[in-house]
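[09:14] KT: can someone run the structure on this one? pasting the chain below
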Amino acid sequence: MSAQQTYRYLGSSALRPDGLALSTSGGPAPNPRFFTGFLTTPQAAAVGLLAVAEVARTRYFRPVSPASLDPVVTGSRDRLRFESFSGCCGVYARLDALPDGLDGDVLAHGTTNVDVNNPLRQSLARVGGLDPLHLSVGPDDLTVSTMDGAVVEKKVPLPVRWLRGFAEVQVLAAAFEPRAEIPATEAAAFLRRLPTANDRSVLWAVPAGRTLRLTSRPVPGAVCLAGPGRLAALRGMLRFARTLRVYGPTVAPGSAPVPSTWELDTGALRLSLTLSPEPYRGFSGEGAALTALSGDDVTDDADLISALLAWDPTIDVDALATAAGIDATRVRGALAQLGTAGRVGYDVSEAAYFHRVMPYDAGRAERDNPRLVGARALLEAGAVERDATGATVRSGDGTYRVRLLPDGNLTCTCLWWAKHRGQRGPCKHALATRMATSDVREPA
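[09:31] RB: done, structure tokens below
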């Protein structure tokens, strides 16, 4: 299934003798060019672009023929971001071309898909260390088809799973903290020690001096490494990198698998891979955004925040809260809502959100989240009976007990909770309970 996002182009993306030309849409003017200039580290940039494109073509769980999915590129003031999900939606890749990596003029801002087809991949693979790589993102003007001339309009089918993945990743990554930083030489040795690409084990990486050691069980300070072969896309960039940084949520002995981000930094570029908690799990089904989407005012807040978003490289949540006259929690809920349309991402290195230009559909949150729809239906039917320790919820022929834990989380007696234990977000009964009360909050 795909979501139709309509953009207008003058032509296809291509690597020409004078540089890499990427078609674009969005921004304040029709069909703008939001960057034109050189990449200061051309060979590393070419390798990074190939890595992002390769992730888009790969299904790490139950591999099949390569997917035909185009990475997304976003420009904002002083940087470019190239993003993709794997065909199974379990790996999120991003290449950030930072200010030191660009030598050109930022003319406008926008988001588009990048057509990295076989000829372009072959051309990028031939970029040598001394070869210049010129990047022109977007044509100079828009052509329209009328009786007086031609207009080129391209409809881009963006998979619904990608939109759901964008929404989930930014919520999950916002809870990540830096866990380790090791030199690139040690990173190369560490990656060489990892199991093969087909290994689906869940390991844990623990900082050990200048390197990382692997363990089969979580310990404080560890980072989950689920399906270690999924880090293969980093290997090409190792020879250009200075450091490998690793990010993840807080874990303790006995913790269930969690997502993590692995980032190579060259100084001018950052290439990162965010891995889902287990190889068979795609980000599109994690349910991390459900609680943030359940507020009564979230849609109106999203409309307000959407109007206030600027094209700064990162989004300041506190500044948005002040400008909008709402608290930071509601701003994060609004960002989660915008994330359902791919409008917002999260940069773990900057510990900040960033903005993409994509059409915003307020109804997408409901359509893409059946549990949210189910929770609202339970509320409308008066099926939630609150009490001092939680709630009793009538659903279909069953009655379920939702209990409030001391840490603010909710448990439920339904089969969904028994199967996932909260690792895929709340069930519809717990979500309805949280929506029905103002004093039951998510833990800080």
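[09:33] KT: thanks! Residues 6-10, 139-156, 439-444 have pLDDT under 50 and may be disordered.
[09:34] RB: yep, looked fine to me
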